[in-house]
Amino acid sequence: MKIGTVLTIEPMHASNQDKYKSRLVEMSGGKLYIDYPINMMTNKTVFLIDGMQLRVSYTNDQNDAYSFETEVKGRKNINIPMILLDQPDEKDLIKVQRRQFVRVNTSIDLSVKSKSISFHTVTEDVSAGGLSFIMKEGLDFHTADPVTLMMVLPMRNGENQYLKADGEITRSKMVNGVKVGMLKFKNLTALERQLLLRYTFECQLKMKEK
To answer: pTM for this one?
Structure first.
């Protein structure tokens, strides 16, 4: 990041999916100094309270996109009013894939239920848009079959988050002799989507630390 970089900011625990735009004004003492952000939908200035958890993304001069998590640390007025954020370490920057949702390889407990089938299995990968899972031998789904899912998301802080969601089968494939089903989520709330985004982000951090 450099002075003048445009930042896209998302509250991490909000019930909506608001996004804000801001600009990096200064960096010093482990802090980022940014302009007061503007809501991208309403074009109005947003007030961020101390301790607010945020996800920030930006694009560098090479057109690579990165994101990181941070926290509001206060306000300062030097010629212009600014908000202070924690500056991330290099290891905490995640390169953003150029697709709608990042998909991470992870094996978590999953319950899948349709009108005629109900079983427990594990995921092969997860994103905020859908997931892949190991299909039980002898069981099969058809494209567009509706299913209900219950999954356990082990978070970075040691807590397990339980998520129940509706899904729709998109297709299946064979991977190393194992049948894998793929589905997309249906009718997720903003909070549910945010939880999945947070989980996949934490998975990326974990993989980066290895």
So the answer is: 0.58
